[in-house]
Amino acid sequence: MKRVLRRSWLTFVVVIAFFGGMAFLIAETLLSASDWVDQAYNGHISGAGGLAQAGSITDRNGDTLAKTVNKERVYHEDKTTRKALLHVVGDNSLNISTAIQSRFRSELTGYSFIWGLNMPKSFRGGRDMQLTVDAKTCKAAYEALSNYDSGACVIYNYNTGEIICSVSVKAYDPNSPPKITKKNEDKYDGVYLDNVLSSTYTPGSIFKIVTAAAAIENIPGVMERKWYCSGKEDIGGGDVTCVGEHGTVNLEQAFGHSCNIVFAELAVELGPEKMNAMAKKMGIKAQFDISGVKTKQGVYSIKNINKNQLAWSGVGQYTDQVNPTQMAILCGAIAKGGKYTKPYIISGESGSILSDLGLSAAGSEGGELVKPSTAKVLQKLMRSAVVNDYGDDMFGGMKICAKTGTGETVKGDEEKNDGWMIGYCTDEDTPLAFACVCHSTDEYGYSSAGKIAKAAMLQARKSLKND
Ligand SMILES: [Zn+2]
Known about the structure:
This protein is an alpha+beta fold. It folds into two domains: 43-132, Penicillin-binding protein 2a (Domain 2) (Alpha-Beta Complex), CATH 3.90.1310; 137-173 and 180-465, DD-peptidase/beta-lactamase superfamily (Beta-lactamase, 3-Layer(aba) Sandwich), CATH 3.40.710. Helices cover 38% and strands 18% of the residues. It has helices spanning 2-37, 43-50, 79-84, 86-89, 100-103, 105-109, 135-145, 195-198, 208-218, 251-257, 260-270, 272-281, 307-313, 324-336, 353-356, 372-391, 449-465, and strands at 57-58, 64-69, 72-75, 129-130, 150-157, 163-169, 227-229, 232-234, 239-241, 247-249, 289-290, 293-294, 339-341, 365-368, 400-411, 414-425, 432-441. A five-stranded antiparallel sheet has the order 6-5-17-16-15, sandwiched between helices. A four-stranded mixed sheet has the order 3-2-1-4, with no helix packed on it. Strand 1 and strand 2 form a beta hairpin. The protein is globular, with a radius of gyration of 26 Å. The chain starts with a helix and ends with a helix. The relative contact order is 0.12. The protein binds zinc ion (ZN). The site of zinc ion (ZN) has 7 residues, from helix 11.
């Protein structure tokens, strides 16, 4: 009897171990199969960062950005273009987590749970991917932007949602990813981050768009009002300084000259709740989904804010932070009269690839960021700023509405600027919204980001006309 009992116990333990093992294997296969595939011992697949069997990635015109030749991953033939598109496409190191190659490696290699890598070609999903970006525009933006320490430039079609340009600096050549050590880590600080999507900067005067919108909606007759700027004023118990002495100005002139005194006074008059409500409405605190990646949220904080801080928050200082893509979307909404079109970067034309990737339909309509009547006034203010303050010939005859900004930041003991230009074009054949930022520069927004915006927008027009 004792022996029988011992044997049944043994059988019981073996059976439990068997089913336990099976359960573990099934769970591992279901959850981690794609990680196994990419292990080094699967050299035939994992060569070139798991991309040895990956399909091609092309730009909107079919220009090849990445392809696999003899199990080697090959990037664009032009070095500047390779750097310009590094954060969009990615590299073999897969260190840029938001890049296409890092996020869609399985889809690019045609890996399937059932078939592994041996899926018959006719069954394979979209192994090749076409993007909405224009390589030439990205190159032009990179050439201008790479003169600065870091920054971002994004352009998108506010009617269709296609992202035409997405460039982040710092960047490196994907053909030779850097080995980052203690010695050179300063040089490559933040290099894996796509600043277009994942960074925020001090907005400076581009935030006056938000303050202007709040004033237009909450202060009756504000467009007819006059202010006096002497260059410096005590507002809310502390000094607010201006970029110049603007004398007597109305709101349109104050917006164009970027007068701090007027917008600081407006913020205090509006109060924290109305300012906060408008920042929220305009998407400063939102995260926008760009083909599966969420943009970094901006900051507008009124917690324990005093009047002088509120004044500075109204001119884009204090703790204000905004993201470049978010700003381009806001400009697109103003251009369209209130609602924005959702931007996307993976072309919906490559078959059913978007549904395969679990992404929502490209270019669908987003919510209202600006009240239509307010959008109309902002259109006028942004157009007037270009015509009267920046010079209308700046963009080679394109009809541009824009706002520049110079956010003051600190690097070590040094005072530096985040130079901005954001806006949109109203020409029918180039319905493009843009946001460009140069981080930690000594220049103002107009001279720094203005150059980037000009170079990128002029090339975008050229490219779209040849589409
Ligand atoms: Zn002023």
